[in-house]
Amino acid sequence: MSxxxxxxxxxxxxSRFGGPLPKQYALLAGxxxxxxxxxxxxxAPGINNLRVVIAPGDEIHYxxxxxxxxxxxxxxxxxxxxxxxxxxxxxxxxxxPDLVAIHDAARPFVKAVDIAACLTxxxxxGIDGAVLGVPLxxxxxxxxxxxxxxxxxxxxxxxxxxxxxxxxxxxxLNAHRVVAxxxxxxxxxxxxxxxxxxxxxxxxxxxxxxxxxxxxxxxxDLARSVAMETRTAFGFDVHGFGPGNAVMLGGVAxxxxxxxxxxxxxxxxxxxxxxAVLGTIGAGDIGKHFPPSDPQWRGxxxxxxxxxxxxxxxxxxxxxxxxxxxxxxxxxxIGPHREAMAASIARIAGIDPGRVSVKxxxxxxxxxxxxxxxxxxxxxxxxxxxxx
Length: 388
What we know:
This protein is α/β, with parallel strands linked by helices. The protein has helices at 33-42, 59-65, 81-92, 112-122, 169-180, 184-189, 193-199, 219-224, 268-280, 286-289, 303-315, 338-349, 367-370, and strands spanning 4-10, 27-28, 31-32, 49-54, 75-76, 99-104, 129-135, 140-143, 149-153, 159-168, 204-208, 228-243, 246-249, 252-255, 258-260, 319-328, 356-361, 374-386. A seven-stranded mixed beta sheet has the order 5-4-1-6-10-7-11, sandwiched between helices. Helix 12 (338-349) links the parallel strand 16 and strand 17. The longest helix has 13 residues, at 268-280. It starts with a strand and ends with a strand.
């Protein structure tokens, strides 16, 4: 069986990206882009070894990005992509693999199935390399120097090349050495390893990949590249009545002949919402974060609890899509206070009031709520969080 080393090229400066760090070290869903890419290859079938080429001076950023992954020492890159790849290939030459998979660090969404397809194609007899890509579907125009359309280019057999680009190791190393001997201008004109291979007369085939395998080039690309998933969780709470003249519901004081008894201000609505938001990120329940046995929470406003849950969600890169609250009670009447409660909940959660729904119902005189012994609340939180 052929052996294959993945060579992740992470030596670029990313001038179009901007920002304080090169794009491969920028955070994507809370982790550096490079780490996502490396982890995609560490779990890919057919990859026996993995090396990363970095720019000299990036060692601190690199170590932070791959912490805990036990990778070999990085390979110093060069002033151009071709030189960085050649440096990587030369570092592997002492114990050469059969195949080498060249991959851009800024393509963190590559799929294992596409890597495997490239390995299979490059291992085929009579083939020197395989390049992942996507056939063009748009109409292609060529313009003149003034911007006027000169012709429509037939799109049949035209592809957008991606990475990985997988080659027989010895053939690619030799092709890169030849290009390097021709001077910087020749090497700069060749924008990927397939072009280097083509110049050497190697037979390279295209392998259809996925639109998901996009490259992060600008900060906007990064912002659009966070894959999100939707989660929903349920919260429920009950509080009985005690002596008083108002109840706190959704952060709003509602006049009543009794109050709700419990630790904090016993805002049953905010407690249910807090549990729902915590549930979306698997962070336990309200009692885990604010134990009833802890005297510091006695009598405090429950908006602190919901705000804490929202902050935990935000720390994981998530956001609230919608909060739905249903109060179950015979009294007090909720209808006159519905809009104020929705506005209060929205303010606490930092979302638009249009993303909050407040409803009320009764149990038709049945059970503890029907006997006017207390209030029950159920809440549903819908959120988006980065897919891991």
